[in-house]
Specification:
With 282 residues, the chain is α/β, with parallel strands linked by helices. It has 10 helices and 11 strands.
């Protein structure tokens, strides 16, 4: 029987840890962990994400502030705001919601955030520490994948983990974090030849490619553990699809995450976790 690794129970466990840790910080050190999210423009998906982050902070006892800026905000103006937020003692976590308008250089903005407040884990210093095996703030979705595997007691050591997708947000950090836990790693991407031959070798298969139902049953072996980090909508449909064709892959998998209801629920929970970690270190 296939184990369904549901994000709801994992997220609830993480959120409870966050709530307790925030209460201890307030009681023992007088610190209320504070997260500020800056959003530029009116991107609908970003608006939903920001709302969910603000709500989670309120529920878990964290201070939350959302700064909304118009689409035509200049890069220099945004950099001045980031500098001000870097200096504020009540702000422990700072996040600039992506994507940004095209006239703003995302890399320049991310580098301007104080690494000590980098709750997204995207700053070059954060990623450098990750790469070199140092303690750091880990990217939220990648960290959520690791937490999912750990909480469901999925063995990682010695396993062959295949990651399909090489983004800086999910694919690359997930690969490094799995390797740090002694998995053997293969990273695949859009130019990988004979992809199905490689995915069939996976003991653990992680997908983050943004192609709905791309991984099918004939591309995996019996007993594979599947973590689907894809969130896709097909044109004309409100339904959300993963990168994995669940119906054909699930019968062969020993464990699998659903979409929706899987990894996606952990990203905000791990953002709250990272905010408390930044507050502890302040």
């Amino acid at each position: 029987m296939t184990l369904l690794m549901e994000g709801k129970s994992v997220a609830a466990k993480i959120r409870e840890e966050v709530k307790e840790a925030a209460a201890v910080l307030k009681a023992e050190r007088g610190i209320t962990p504070g997260l500020v999210v800056v959003i530029v423009g009116e991107d609908p998906a970003s608006q939903i994400y920001v709302k969910s982050k603000h709500k989670a902070c309120q529920e878990l006892g964290l201070y939350s502030e959302v700064i909304r800026l118009p689409e035509d905000t200049g890069e220099a103006q945004l950099l001045v705001l980031i500098d001000e937020l870097n200096r504020r003692k009540d702000v422990h976590g700072l996040l600039v919601q992506l994507p940004l308008p095209k006239h703003i250089n995302e890399g320049k903005i991310l580098e301007a955030i104080d690494p000590a407040k980098d709750v997204d884990g995207f700053h070059p210093i954060s990623t450098g520490r990750l790469f070199s095996g140092q303690k750091t703030i880990y990217p939220c979705t990648a960290y959520g994948i690791i937490k999912m595997l750990e909480i469901y007691q999925i063995p990682i050591k010695g396993q062959h983990a295949v990651i399909v997708g090489r983004s800086n947000i999910v694919g690359k950090p997930t690969a490094i974090m799995l390797m740090d836990r002694h998995a053997t790693i293969t990273i695949c991407h859009s130019r990988t030849r004979n992809l199905a031959e490689i995915t069939r070798q996976a003991d653990i298969l992680v997908t983050a490619i943004g192609k709905p139902c791309f991984i099918t049953g004939d591309m995996v072996k019996e007993g594979v553990i599947v973590v689907d980090a894809g969130i896709n909508r097909q044109e004309g449909s409100k339904k959300i699809y993963g990168d994995v064709d669940f119906d054909s892959v699930e019968p062969k998998a020993s464990a699998i995450t659903p979409v929706p209801g899987g990894v996606g629920l952990l990203t905000v929970a791990m953002l709250m976790y990272n905010t408390v970690e930044c507050a502890k270190n302040s």
